[in-house]
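User: I'm curious whether this sequence folds into something compact or stays loose and floppy. Could you predict its structure so I can see for myself?
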Amino acid sequence: MQSLKYIIPSWMLLCFSSNLFGQCTGDEVEFTMTVSTDQYGFEVYWEIVPFGNDCGQEVLHFGGNANQINCDNAGTQVATDTGQGYDNSSVNEE
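Assistant: Here's the prediction. I'll summarize afterward.
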């Protein structure tokens, strides 16, 4: 029974350690976004902007093929893959 007084606090520390040592400050939250593509993954572009902002204004984070597809154009067709964007038919964690 004596060892129980050491096991319970150790268990609690293990369970809640992610909250104690998180990378986010008090006014931030962590999130994960899953980007699933079809056979045209190269044609994906997305942005995270503050609420009420238009595309391209105060961009917090973006992903995909910003070289060919962005806020200023509808995308241009290119003959070769530049290595940007996502693979076709893939699932990507951001």
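Summary: Residues 4-20 form the longest helix (17 residues). The longest strand covers residues 45-48.
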